[in-house]
Amino acid sequence: MELQSGEDLDPQTTLDKIVCNDERRLYSLAEIGLPEIIGIGSLKYQKNHTPLPPHCHPHAVEIHLCQTGASRFEIEGTAHVFLPNTICLTQPGVRHRLATVEKRQEHYWMMFSTKAWVTSFLGLRQDESRTLLNRLRVIDRTFFPAEREVEVLFREVVNILERASFGPEHTLRLRIALLRLIIKIIDSAERKDDAESSEILNAVIFGLREHPEQHTTVTELARQAHMSESHFIHAFKKTTGLTPNAFRTEARINVAKRLLKDPSLRLVDIAIATGFASHAHFSTVFSHEVGITPLSWRKNAVNKQ
């Protein structure tokens, strides 16, 4: 089954068979009688991802659930950071692309056609299909926190699809799990109680990632997020998997690696640009986090270019 990407066919978002390799385990469900599910599966990136071109799907909804790591999506030309425990949902016709992926990023992915909902979706009656579609189509949020069951159900669906044999009972279990998954995604989008605080927290995290050289204290970051310091640290770690200071250090190291690829830049200048107190401090932290000195890392990076 092919997806139309804007005016032109985008071969990188076409899925007409099972794709299983070190990075992707994606399944097309047409062969087992569920053509409305264009594709579903898991993605695991061990290195940065080549950016996809901006595209849209006129008759399909695309959903991502970030598990670990971070990436950057562009929605209608605007960049958004995509963090763990967050759902990214793009409605039909919305131009988007996965722009960059940080190392060790993992997420689940699903795309389904909205055309099939006019008659029946996953075996539902026509009125049930339309009710579910109406709830989905009124979602006006592209990024929102995922309820805990969403990841559990994604995992259940993938586990069913990984079975060597597939019979009527497996198809039934798969349909039930898919319906529960979509309903939980809708429920997650309709939860408004934590939406504002989550969006503010994500903005603080995004700012820290973009400007790790700044010496903003945890107290000041908590104030920006409108949280107490203890609540902020807990929410920050739950979202990113790291404490604010560890996250800042990781972001500084990532910026330093990019700057180290330019042989004209002195190490002391890179240390200052990334917010370290001195050249010695930069070398100590870099060696501890990466395993080799900045100079050794630069030599390896230059040799690979």
Defining traits:
single chain, alpha+beta
Explain what you see.
The protein is an alpha+beta fold and 305 residues long. The chain contains ten helices and twelve strands. The two termini are 39 Å apart.
Question: How big is the Rg?
Answer: 22 Å
The chain-level mean pLDDT equals 84
Number of beta-strand segments: 12
Enumerate how many helices there are, as a single number. Answer: 10
Give the helix/strand class.
Answer: alpha+beta
| Outline | elongated
Percent of residues in beta strands? 15-25%
Strand order of the largest sheet: 3-4-5-11-6-9-12
The percentage helix is 40-55%
Sequence of secondary-structure elements: EEEEEEEEEEEHEHHHHHHHHH
Largest sheet: 7 strands, antiparallel
Distance between the termini: 39 Å
Q: Low-confidence parts lasting 5 or more residues at pLDDT below 50?
A: 1-17
What's the SSE blueprint?
Elements: E1 4-5, E2 8-9, E3 19-20, E4 24-27, E5 37-45, E6 60-68, E7 71-75, E8 78-82, E9 86-90, E10 96-101, E11 105-113, H1 126-137, E12 143-145, H2 148-161, H3 168-190, H4 195-210, H5 218-224, H6 229-240, H7 244-260, H8 267-273, H9 279-290, H10 294-304
Antiparallel strand pairs: 1-2, 3-4, 4-5, 5-11, 6-9, 6-11, 7-8, 7-10, 9-12
Helix pairs in contact: 2-3, 5-6, 8-9
